[in-house]
């Protein structure tokens, strides 16, 4: 059975990682779009570094939860071919034991050089003074993440996996950010049954064949069993 799972911020919420569009969707008075866009980075790189440095420190403090563990178990289940796509930039799926996680919006624990294109591990704070370990350039590193207006990673692979899937499941995502928000429609167009697991109704709930409401830490293990 081929299963495609798309996860969003809600899957890491019970680990203590804040979602984007929670109560006010703001970070210290800035809209997410201001700090997660190439224009925002060009305007105020240090502000953007500070945003990601804080999130990197937070992610290094937290642990995977029952939802991450249940998805890792699903990936090991006999007869299941799982494509795990996450919009999350944390590494909690990997730390729970999932392998080959497709990080369509990038990874917080990596940096990328704007000058030579190298991608490198990054567990420390980034700043304008950080030096690229590949080319030696200064003030050329950025978080290895996908900002608004940039093309997400792995879209061809994701589209192929959805088109041949037996089931598509979206967990803890608001359905407000494209193209991930369109995956459920892509699945339906291919005749794939679709399931949503979310604490609340999302912008895409109406498109799914079935929606279940509750915390991912409860819903995902119950679904995987
Ligand atoms: C729980 C829970 C619990 C809580 N248990 N559930 C106009 C119309 C249509 C599209 C556009 C438009 N204008 C611009 C666009 C495109 C734009 C876009 O979508 N904008 C929208 C805002 C309208 N998209 C892009 O620019 C993308 N690129 C693109 O389109 O390229 C062009 C192209 C693509 C493909 C083909 C051809 C051309 C890039 C988008 C990049 C998004 N980047 C971010 C930042 C990444 C780095 C970082 O993390 O900082 O990605 S933004 C942010 O949102 C982050 C997330 O991955 C993403 C999605 O958020 P998510 O995961 O859904 O979180 P929340 O907070 O929104 O929701 C949490 C959910 O969890 C809620 O539903 C809760 O109920 C639930 N929940 N606790 C279960 N315990």
Automatic annotation (TrEMBL):
Pfam families the UniProt entry points to: SIR2
Entry binding sites for substrate: 52, 55
Subcellular location as annotated: Cytoplasm
Residues where Zn(2+) binds: 113, 116, 132, 135
EC number(s) per entry: 2.3.1.286
Residue stretches making up the Deacetylase sirtuin-type domain: 1-225
Reaction it catalyzes: N(6)-succinyl-L-lysyl-[protein] + NAD(+) + H2O = 2''-O-succinyl-ADP-D-ribose + nicotinamide + L-lysyl-[protein]; N(6)-acetyl-L-lysyl-[protein] + NAD(+) + H2O = 2''-O-acetyl-ADP-D-ribose + nicotinamide + L-lysyl-[protein]
Domain of life of the organism encoding this protein: Bacteria
Function: NAD-dependent lysine deacetylase and desuccinylase that specifically removes acetyl and succinyl groups on target proteins. Modulates the activities of several proteins which are inactive in their acylated form.
PANTHER family referenced in this protein's UniProt entry, alphabetically: NAD-DEPENDENT PROTEIN DEACYLASE, NAD-DEPENDENT PROTEIN DEACYLASE SIRTUIN-5, MITOCHONDRIAL-RELATED
Family: Belongs to the sirtuin family. Class III subfamily.
UniProt comment concerning the protein's domains: 2 residues (Tyr-52 and Arg-55) present in a large hydrophobic pocket are probably involved in substrate specificity. They are important for desuccinylation activity, but dispensable for deacetylation activity.
Protein name: NAD-dependent protein deacylase
Organism: Luteolibacter arcticus
